[in-house]
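Q:
Got a chain?
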Amino acid sequence: SYRFGLRWRGAHLRVEVDGDGVQYTLTEGSALTFLHDGLPQRLHAGQPLRLKCAGFADAGATALKAVIFDLDGVIADTAIVHHAAWKRLADEIGVPFDDATGERMKGVDRRGSLDILLQATTHSYTEAEKHTLATRKNDYYREQIEHFGPRDLLPGARAAIEQVRRAGLKVALASASRNAGLLLERLGIADLFDAIVDANRISRSKPDPEIFLAAANALGVAPDECIGVEDAAAGIASIHAAGMAAVGIGQPLVLAKADLVLPSIAAFDIGTFTATRTANWRGPVVRQAATQTETDGEDVTWATASK
């Protein structure tokens, strides 16, 4: 075992390494963000942090067998299309619609999203009228995705899915969209998925865990053997409720409860989750693009301990 200290801009970090891992203690300063084995960690005064060290195996870690991806906002930027379709409907029926309302709809199925929209009106709609409105919105959406193609995949999306398959893991889709199958065909990636679960196969929408549990069941794996990848807070809650680890794609403030937040799907690296050295990657932590040296606007201190 050994120990050493690091001083950085008024903060002092004590690092103690032994046969089981490494313990970080902030002895001076109120908080510090640093990199442990390539992943940012947030440390506060009076709250020592103990982590596995590079080269140490985590015997208690469950083997990863599958990755379950959301569709909208993760694989393709259909969130913009959904937003435009809901905005068009809202304008037609005289209901206010803004970005905050659109954010609440992310990861929620069509009927649930309609209920969110109608919260802003005093008019009482019958079930038949709600069905008509939901169908009208879907028609607007389908008009747009009919023109989708592989060019509409988000940068790095196909590569992320393919690297999961190359790693020998199973791949599933868990999407609140009832048009998921059609969209995957348009995007040219339907054959990359071992299972597709959409709103047609479930009765409860995110944040209920049903859709991710159904995806794991379709793959024949246990929930704790899966990682879920989402861009919405409701999706992250759904993944966690299913007993899975959650990777968020997007803004850290919106996805604060995710175990790991990536700026885009292009930053997804399956090696982060399969390598022994990062077996205890579960956070919550935030990983920024590899070229950045700041996390949430704060300078990061590198502290890498090895056996």
